[in-house]
Design goal:
Structural class: mainly alpha
Largest sheet: none
Radius of gyration: 32 Å
Number of domains: 2
Helix content: over 70%
């Protein structure tokens, strides 16, 4: 990066020397050239910064926090107790209990994998 800055400084210095040699009638062209070079340098710097930020952001996206996982775990646990009691008392049988617990486990898995997207 230091090399590109010193290279830009050398280019600008050469353009200024050429402007002095050419005379005042070329001042507008020289100014436009310098503005274009500065714009290009700014664009390059901004693109580089945005790419860096985007790479950082991609690394963080898709991983649910421990707090979200804990809340989902507590919700599943809180729902599991009454759901088990209802399935055991009203419907009865081991098939109902297995169905309720399979649904709760499936809900938790889908919720956590859905947060990763």
């Amino acid at each position: 990066m230091t090399d590109s800055i010193s290279q830009r400084q050398a280019e600008i210095a050469a353009a200024l020397r050429a402007g002095r040699e050419l005379g005042p009638e070329y001042d507008d062209a020289l100014a436009a050239s310098l503005v274009e070079r500065i714009d290009d340098a700014i664009d390059t710097s901004v693109r580089r910064h945005l790419d860096h930020r985007q790479r950082e952001h991609k690394g963080k996206v898709g991983v649910p926090s421990n707090t979200v996982r804990m809340v989902l775990s507590l919700v599943c646990l809180g729902v599991s107790i009454p759901a088990t009691a209802i399935a055991a008392s009203l419907v009865g049988g081991p098939v109902a209990l297995i169905s309720v617990w399979a649904g709760l486990i499936l809900f938790y898995i889908i919720s956590v994998t859905g947060l990763r997207r």
